[in-house]
Amino acid sequence: MSEEHRVAGIVLAAGSSTRMGRNKLLLDVGGETLVRRAVRLAGEAGLDPVILVTGHARRAVEREVRHLDCTVAVNPDHETGIQTSVACGIAAVPEACAAAIVMLSDMPFVTARMVRTLVERYAEMDAPLVVSRYGEVNAPPILYGRGLFGEISRMRAGCGREVVRRHHKRAVPVDWPADRLRDLDRPDEYEAVRREFAGVGSRSSDLP
């Protein structure tokens, strides 16, 4: 990746997982915890640096990635909403980076290939915004050019969708199968995904 198009990764891992009843980021999927998987994929996709935003149970979460190349940013206000974690991650992006990709830790069907594709589209088209689109739904991972960092930091809610709506005419969409959108909020969702990964029998970044 050229310095002109250097892209940081922001992996959000500060939430308290209230609907799961336990810290979902520490749950095992395909042989590794969700948070470790997300950070590993960000690195494999070439994001530099990879910034992990922690908050709730931060020591346990950070322990999971201690052998991976990432920078930790602690969000002391994580209980007030995910937007504060996004702002915390954006504040930690080095000046040398022209853009950042915001990722969620609880989307196990996002792959390194998907993240790399966002970076490639950004480099090819010099787009200020590259959005993952799952059917009719826009969701992370989403790439934001540095020109949008101020708006992201001032968001009142969510992880960037209001910024996407505001700049949708300038956005480059990248389409993915709708089933890649699945995230893990409840125990039944986790059990279904755990069984699915066990059936695949692989820790590959590019699961089918």
Overview of this protein structure:
There is one protein chain. The chain is α/β, with parallel strands linked by helices and 208 residues long. It has one domain (3-199): Spore Coat Polysaccharide Biosynthesis Protein SpsA, Chain A, CATH 3.90.550. It has 7 helices and 9 strands. Strands 5-4-1-6-8-7-9 form a 7-stranded mixed sheet, with helices on both faces. The protein has a two-stranded antiparallel sheet with strand order 2-3. The radius of gyration is 16 Å and the shape is globular. Residues 202-206 have low confidence and may be disordered.
Secondary-structure blueprint:
Elements: E1 7-13, E2 28-29, E3 32-33, H1 34-44, E4 50-54, H2 58-64, E5 71-74, H3 82-91, E6 99-104, H4 112-125, E7 129-134, E8 137-145, H5 149-153, H6 161-166, E9 172-176, H7 187-200
